Amino acid sequence: MNKMKKMAFASLMGMFVMAPVQAEDEMAVNVSRITMDVANRIAMASVEACRKEGIPISVTVVDRNGIPQAQLRDTMAPPVSWGISRKKAYTAVMFNVKGSQLESRSKSPLQTMGEGLAFMAGSVPIQAGGKLYGAIGVSGAPDGMVDEKCAAAGLDEVKMDLEMM
User: Fold this and answer.
1) What 3-state DSSP class applies to 121?
2) 141 Ramachandran zone, left/alpha/beta (phi>0; psi -120 to 50)
3) What is the mean pLDDT of each run of 10 residues along the chain (165 residues)?
4) Which structural domains are found in the chain, ordered by start?
5) Are 108 and 91 contacting, i.e. CB atoms less than 8 angstroms apart?
6) CB 82 within 8 Å of CB 73
């Protein structure tokens, strides 16, 4: 009988060795983030792009959760541009699209429900290497598309480096 137990145990072990191995579900998620220094580079590049156009602006760089990571207001930028740039950046990261792509939703119920949303041109998501890092919102130009151009210039400052990560 002892010999039969050994044979049964050996057979059972053989089945386990032959069974396909299944990977366990991940228990944690790795999230890529830009550093504060990179956020500041983006913000300053956005300001400089608008300065070349003679336009003082405010710029906000938010992380992927919509939390401000860097915020600058050029010396003569209108004070109201500070909060608008934050709202533009927040909206862009929440919807993962440029602000100009959201303008058609400005009269939707989302506008009234979502505190802190701004469905208008002037923001771009920070996307590189298939990852969403955050967004850039710019306010202060007489036209939102100029704001968006300056936000895109901020992204261009670091995009190639982010693509390599």
Assistant:
1) coil
2) beta
3) 59 54 76 95 98 98 97 98 97 96 79 79 96 98 97 97 90
4) 36-163 (3.30.450.150)
5) no
6) yes
